[in-house]
Specification:
By secondary structure, the protein is mostly helical. Helix content is about 45%, strand content about 5%. It has four helices and two strands; from the N terminus they run E-H-H-H-H-E. It is globular.
Length: about 70
């Protein structure tokens, strides 16, 4: 099961490695405030506490909108 970072709620985000309730809340709040994420690197830049290690853990476990679909 892949988690859709553009639509997942806090409970679903917590299925990802290294995501607890506070980080899940920050991801949802940032997405609500500024729109969906285009890449994992953008999630790292926009959400405090994500970091490169989590980005590596999440590869292959998340879905994001395709860059060329914009």
């Amino acid at each position: 099961h892949r988690v859709d970072l553009s639509a997942a709620g806090e409970a679903e985000l917590r299925l990802l490695p290294g995501v607890g309730p506070r980080l899940a809340g920050r991801i949802v709040a940032e997405r609500s405030a500024r729109g969906p994420f285009a890449s994992l690197e953008e999630v790292d830049r926009r959400v405090p506490g994500v970091g490169p290690a989590r980005v590596r853990w999440w590869r292959g476990r998340v879905e994001l909108p395709r860059e060329d679909a914009k």
